[in-house]
Design a protein that fits this description.
2 domains; about 25% helix; extended
Length: about 180
């Protein structure tokens, strides 16, 4: 299993198995990175420009049989807001910045010995699964159910959200003698 630089497991053997599409890939199959940041890697940008910025991984016209691992600028960040391990959904409270998020970004890829940097490959894990993956041999792909504490935290947030949806008239809010006295 892959490990962080400090030696804790990341929960997968191959991070690329969990990467869907590159964040730089456009809907037309072109490489946004080469187009928007040619100054960062001129050789890469020139090669992409010669092929009309076509991504060599998804392009049918490319002569190279690239994989995401071959691309020097590959990055895959999860966009779904649920735990990749247990399926717990994120529930953020819009007006309460003190609540800790239920989901955390979990990095699957770290710098390797032969490379200065590594591809950024991330998924979302709930706080409870994140701890299990880093503190044990738990895997991201385990068939897991949400932790009881995670369900309780989610339900508590749903309850607060439902309370906000409720409507009270001013007379109901001030019914217990809290009414303003005019006059």
């Amino acid at each position: 299993m892959k490990k962080t630089p400090t030696g804790t497991p990341v929960g997968v053997d191959d991070p690329y198995d969990h990467a869907e599409l590159c964040d730089h890939l456009t809907g037309e199959g072109t490489c946004r990175y080469a187009f928007e940041h040619p100054q960062h890697d001129r050789e890469f940008a020139m090669a992409r420009r010669e092929e009309e910025f076509a991504c060599p991984v998804v392009s049918d016209e490319s002569d190279d049989d690239w994989t995401w691992a071959d691309c020097p600028h590959f990055r895959a960040t999860a966009t779904d807001r649920e735990c990749a391990r247990c399926g717990l959904e994120e529930k953020r409270m819009a007006h309460d910045s003190t609540d800790r998020p239920l989901l955390e970004e979990h990095h699957l890829s770290y710098a390797s010995e032969d490379r200065e940097t590594s591809h950024e490959i991330t998924v979302y894990l709930c706080r409870w699964c994140h701890a299990k993956v880093h503190n044990s041999w738990a895997r991201v792909t385990d068939d897991a159910s949400p932790d009881p504490e995670a369900i309780a935290a989610l339900e508590e947030r749903r309850g607060r959200e439902m309370d906000e949806f409720g409507f009270q008239t001013a007379s109901e809010r001030f019914e217990d003698g809290d009414r303003r006295q005019d006059g």
